[in-house]
Amino acid sequence: MKKPLIGTLVALLLAGATALAGAPTATAASTAPAPPKAEQAVAAVSFAGTVALSNCSGSLVRLPNSTANDPALILSNGHCLDGGMPGPGQVVVNQASSRTFSLLNSAGTKVATLRASKMLYGTMTDTDVSIYQLNTTYASIQSKYGIAPLTVAATHPVQGTAIKVVSGYWKKIYSCSADGFAYRLKEADWTFKDSLRYTSTCNVIGGTSGSPVVDANSGQVVAVNNTINESGQRCTLNNPCEVDQNGAVTVRPGIGYAQETYIIPACFAAGNRLDLTLPGCVLPRP
Fold this sequence. Notes:
This protein is mainly β. The chain has helices at residues 7-13, 37-44, 138-145, and strands spanning 50-52, 57-62, 71-76, 91-96, 100-104, 110-123, 129-137, 150-151, 162-167, 172-187, 190-198, 212-215, 221-228, 241-243, 249-250, 256-260, 268-269, 273-274.
């Protein structure tokens, strides 16, 4: 988890550091057989619906029950909040915001500047997520710019699934698989629950924070990218460690992580209205 980037120059200096992506190199010969359907689905994931923040990445998202005329939502990391990183145990809800987001098309070209009306939810407790409400609807965005939102899956991601980490900030994409899940992920003063662990090819960097982690088969968002163990240290800032149910600590140098998003839909009522008291909502409350 890297502190939010300030400007492109700083981002470039951090290019070898952690997240808080570049397309994989092709290895198949021209005479190789056609890839299976799963691999074809991976290639179909694009930048459409992703956004660039001033310091991070994000995505235009809808929930499974969202409608075209609902106010649109932007998903990113809690540590990307414009007010700074929330402390352990801190949950920020329903704050006025005029933050802007650069909306990208499938090629990674900016097609619009979107503006928030409210920061609905932000925390780094148990997860690392921020959700902004825009001053426009999905229907309006689709009509003006031809961009549809990504859908947040309401089910837990599956180990071994091919995934893409799509960075709107860098206009780059990482390809890897869901290697497994960390019972607890501890980084400095923060602890995240049930984090998705990447295989090694998703070696995310500064500025990719908040990128949607897309299931390459369904095209749905299953997590939000947030950190990587940069230098092999144990449980320090930029060096998260895994802690199992028995308290045993595992350090995986160079391995990145994301926070699952399937718990988000249960916390929204009709009209994309945040309601942390809904049955089944487990997001931390203020």
